[in-house]
Amino acid sequence: MKTLLAILLAAFASVAIAAPPVPIEKPAPPADLKTPPADAVKAASGLVTKVLAPGTGSDHPAATDYAHIHYAVWKASDGSVVDFTRGHLMAFVPLANLLPGMRDALMSMVPGERLRAWIPAELGQGRIPANDRFVTDLELIDVVHPPTAPADVAAPPSDANVTPSGLAYKVLRPGTGTVHPGRHQTVVVHYSGWSTDGEMFDSSVMRDEPAEFALDAVIPGWTEGVQLMTEGEKARFWIPSKLAYDNKPGRPKGMLVFDIDLIKIK
Predict the structure, then answer these.
(1) Which of 57, 62, 140, 246 has the most crowded CB, counting CB atoms within 10 A?
(2) Would you call 237 a catalytic residue per the annotation?
(3) Average pLDDT over the chain, rounded to an integer
(4) Which structural domains are found in the chain, ordered by start?
């Protein structure tokens, strides 16, 4: 009997805990959805914009940049919601992948600014029906510039440190910690990697999420190099092929250059 009672109580508890999902409230269309106000600015492209709140920054994103934004998009013809960011969540977007009208609107903004844009079909890349418009409210949180290839990407500079294995490195920013990770520990890092011709082949920065690696499960140059670092440190490594992918098919070839920011040792 006790066993049956325990089962019934457990079942009741699981039902009580499993609350129904809270419906997400869609944003209401603005009052000037169909007709931009007289003080809105119209560009030669047909894009119409109005600043809702001025920004606090000064950095305008370029077409090659990424940005954190809040947004809502409606169809001007009927006020239906096309898309929007949920709650307090931000979207991390490459401007190059946006509709031309939304990209142009963002490129006119600075961080902290809120703007409303009326995007004609001509700037909708086929997504906006003819004779209709998308209306979007945008808030630019910040701008993320893609990492650029280091000036010394082709070869280590004369002031780089070189280990007996041939690994070269240079500290770009001193760490705030004193402990070095061991070869069997896991680390949380941001990183970008280039081949010596300056082509970036990978970057956690552009995924907007730090990477987590076990140091005994990465290329030898990483295993050795990250053990030289402390938390908070940022360093550049020139990793010879034998300590990288050793010219394996389908992998970056030759010497590789990495900027690594050690965020945490786990």
Answers:
(1) 140
(2) no
(3) 91
(4) 33-144 (3.10.50.40), 161-265 (3.10.50.40)
Catalytic residue among 59, 92, 142, 245: 245
Element (H, E) at 66: strand 66-75
Query: Beta partners for 72?
Result: 84, 137
Of 66, 169, 191, 237, the catalytic one is: 191
- pLDDT digit string, tens, across residues 4-44: 434 333 443 444 455 566 677 899 999 999 999 999 999 99
Catalytic position from the list 258, 260, 261, 265: 258
- Residue 24: active-site member: no
Separation in Å, CA 251 to CA 112, 156, 211, 238, 255: 40, 22, 19, 16, 12
> In angstroms, rounded to a whole number, what is the distance separating the alpha carbons of residues 245 and 259?
17
> Catalytic site residue 258?
yes
Catalytic residue among 142, 152, 202, 208: 202
Give residue-wise pLDDT tens across range 106-146: 999 999 999 999 999 999 999 999 999 999 999 999 999 99
Cβ(140)–Cβ(49) under 8 Å?
A: no
The verdict on whether 17 is a catalytic residue reads: no
Catalytic residue among 59, 142, 208, 219: 219
pLDDT (0 to 100) of residue 19: 57
Annotated catalytic residue 71: no
